[in-house]
Amino acid sequence: MRQLRPHLQEDGFVAVVRAQMAEGYRLAYLLEDGEVACVAGYRIHRNLMMGKSLYVDDLSTDESARSQGCGARMMAWLREAALDAGCAEIHLDSRVQRHRAHRFYLNRNMDIVCHHFSEQLR
Q: 87: left (phi > 0), else alpha (psi -120 to 50), else beta?
């Protein structure tokens, strides 16, 4: 996760994750040879537009394990978790400059369905 979110400091990371977990955030990980190769942070939620869906907040494969199928296996696991939870869709956001990630998601049959807007408040 540190490779995906380098701005987070280790001591504050656990507190942030615990606060998110209190709001429904879950963590899943994939081990390769006893080491964490891929991690996903996700939540199940409902809204009026999408109904019940699984939202992937964080998905990161360790740099040493990339292009070995770990991300694909994690996405397959997330898909099954979504189906088991009765979700109709999986959603995620990916920063515009992350072209390799976009290709990965498009190759997993995901579609670009909306634009995400944000406003910095501080």
A: beta
